[in-house]
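User: Predict Transcriptional regulator, TetR family's structure from this.
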Amino acid sequence: MTSPLLPQIGVDTPERGDAARNRRLLLDAAALLVAERGVDAVTMDAVACRAGVGKGTVFRRFGSRSGLMHALLDHTERELQQSFMFGPPPLGPGADPIDRLIAFGHARLAIVEVQGEVLRAAENSLEFRFAAPARAVSVSHVVSLLRAAGVQGDHELLACSLLAPLEATLVLHELRDLGMSVERLGDAWEDLIRRVTRC
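Assistant:
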């Protein structure tokens, strides 16, 4: 496949090579801080220190902590999108659509496990939760896979319903408060997909 079937999120003019490298360096540093110490540890100072640059570089690049967090989410979503649009099967093209749906859920759960607090913060923003470009791309992707699998019905509404159990707020509650494992949630996701796609 040489061109995207879905609208890509956050597509803008290409950056210079050094600017793109610096951006990725800063976002990788922020992602590591989230994974190691939680979302509250992601300050402009901490990211600058972790990336080995001055704090002014972080502010020039993202403007504020809020801008950094939104860029981090966009960074994560772009990587997932690249994987399901162009990556290897079963997440990427070439696999059975049901297997791709199952792989998509597992990939989303893995992201929530690492960056759940960042995602939950975004979900709690009413302007972001349902109108975010990343969510629209995920809905479109699930709709296309449901159609390819021969599932009948209102594909868009079904896609929205299927994505609900993958929302960070619910997943974090299940992991932290209910003591469920990511493996259990992944198995439940696969069971749900197989039931929904049984024609």
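Residues 97-123 form the longest helix (27 residues).
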